[in-house]
Cation-transporting P-type ATPase B
Amino acid sequence: AIPTALMVASGRGAQLGIFIKGHQALEATRDVDTVVLDKTGTVTEGAMSLVAVTAADGWTEDEVVRLAGAVESASEHAIAAAVVAAARERGAALPEVESFAALPGLGARGVVEGRTVTIGRPTLFDGRAPQAMNRAVRQQERFGRTAVLVAVDDTVVAVLAVADTVKPGAAAAVARLRRLGLRTMMLTGDNAYAAQAVADEIGIEEVVAELLPEGKVELIARMQEQGRRVAMVGDGINDGAALATADLGMAVGAGTDVAIAAADIILVRPDLGAVSDAIELAHATLRTIK
Ligand code: ADP
Ligand code: MG
């Protein structure tokens, strides 16, 4: 009866925009007691916009946005899209990027017009930013924004602040997971202020911020050692390893190829209600098999 039940589940799943990758994925939902949500692109839209630029002395906003935009045009991160859009809005023709490197969970680096341009989280530039830049970072973070630094060669030249919005229905989706008896937790590489603002908005009590991608993996592994069965929900940028480590990996939204490969369940719908829909569908299917 397993194949029949799976077929019924896939039919219903397709209507709901949920793809369960076979029997093992179904089984994995049985004992899940904890749902870990990635913040950017999972709880939030991941459609960021550049809301503030602070340029260091000797630099103009347009120039730093142009150079950062050029490097970010080679990145798939949500922050990158915001910077590229802002550069285009400012009428910049983006120069070509040579030797681009993504720094997962940290930022991106590329050579533009012969200069090395690095953009990423403040800790990437430990101690090299001038006081005024550090102050701008703190101020933007207190507004609940994500602040990244831009360096040209070894000089920090600007702070860019981006803002994201929580997906509609995210709070209701978290409440639904709770009603299913599941513990919810949000993980993010973003700063603690931005993380807390989102957590407050959606009613998640447990938040861990400023994590690196491997930190997310370690946290999940530690919970598993404590006997928890963990579902991880992510859009996949940097989260492939966490999705694969979790007892149940769920890729949300369009997802990246990495997420789709690493996940057990693919949620085609971007809304977080798909997470509880998928768990409920899986449980209902398991009941018909037993
Ligand atoms: P999240 O856990 O919220 O999905 P990520 O792990 O993707 O966050 O990124 C963590 C942090 O690394 C971001 O908040 C940002 O500061 C920095 N970062 C990562 N990629 C980029 C990029 N392409 N451009 C600028 N900053 C980046
Ligand atoms: Mg992410």
About this structure: DSSP finds twelve helices and 13 strands in the chain. The chain has two domains: 2-45+165-289, 49-163. The longest helix spans residues 273-289. The first strand starts at residue 18 and ends at 20.
